[in-house]
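Reply to thread "Modeling small-molecule complexes from scratch"

Following up on the discussion above, here's a worked example others can learn from. I took a protein sequence and the SMILES for calcium ion and predicted the complex. Inputs first:
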Amino acid sequence: MFAHDVPAFFSDANRKTDDESSTRRAARQAYYRKASPPEIRDMMLWVYPPKVEKPPEPKRLSEAQKAEIKSIFVLYDLNDNGLLDKKELLEALADTGYDDDEIEEMFEEYDTNGDGDIDLHEFERMLEQAYLS
Ligand SMILES: [Ca+2]
Ligand SMILES: [Ca+2]
């Protein structure tokens, strides 16, 4: 940088503070003209760091929510065998406003291992959306 550039350099640097700090802009303007292309690239990365897209944290049920779901499961599991069969689910959801077809559909959808029962794990999946949304 030449001495006669200095006043303009600073006034310019101080004026433009919109999306990069004046210090960074000053540094970029001071060194830009002598920089080699890789150096320019490095400076641009410094001034405009690439946005690191963090993948959203997968939503998980908390231990408290899991415990709550389990207590509901136990309540629905009328014969206490650790599984909800279709009849138990129909009975459990009878008052929720779902009709039998919808409940049966839900049952088929969430009985992911197809054994004809909803186990606790499948039941968690069933309620997960309601809990996490
Ligand atoms: Ca049962
Ligand atoms: Ca199952």
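What I'd highlight from this example: The chain has a mean pLDDT of 84. The domain at 63-128 is CATH 1.10.238.10 (Recoverin; domain 1). Questions welcome below.
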